[in-house]
Amino acid sequence: MATLVEGGSWRDVRRTPVGSERRRLSDRQTGAMTVVAAGARFEGRLSGKGAVIVSGQVIGECDFAGTVTIADGGHWEGRLHADDVMIAGRVAGDVVARGRVEMGQRAQVTGTVTGLSVAIAEGAVIEGELRAGARGEDAPVVFSEKRHR
Within a domain: residue 147? Predict the structure, then answer.
């Protein structure tokens, strides 16, 4: 499969099977979680360790040692920096993952998405720049969402 990239050129996008070392982030989550529930709104700076799940709205910035999940229906406005990031909702701002970024089929991001590895479901939308790999050299993984939550 090929995709149009900035500058009007085409680039190969690889389809990679999911092996045990490439399990989805949601399959690897354990431990305590911080939750911004649907209907809740948080404004400010969020930092800490563990997992964060946003089903409501966050306006601010984040530097989290763990996985930040923007659930379907969740909205993040501002800079999001974490070990890993899963997006099923909307983000208006830059996303930086020290590890992996996963975008579900309903994900919408307006801003730059950066991660060592990036997985994008068919249907996800990025209005901005995508940087994958240590120096932006790796092509993102494209997958069809088979799970319906």
Answer: no
Kindly report the average pLDDT of the chain as a whole number: 81
Residue 79, domain extent: 32-142
Is pTM beyond 0.70 here?
yes
Instruction: Assess if residue 81 is contained within a domain.
Output: yes
> Would you say 84 and 69 are in contact if contact means Cβ atoms under 8 Å apart?
no
Q: What is the pLDDT of residues 60-93, one digit of tens each?
A: 999 999 999 999 999 999 999 999 999 999 999 9
| Helix, strand or coil, per DSSP, at residue 25 | helix
DSSP class of residue 122? T
Residue 119 lies in a domain: yes
- The answer as to whether 5 is a domain residue is no
Task: Mention every residue, 6+ apart, whose C-beta is less than 8 A from residue 105.
Answer: 121, 122, 123, 124, 145
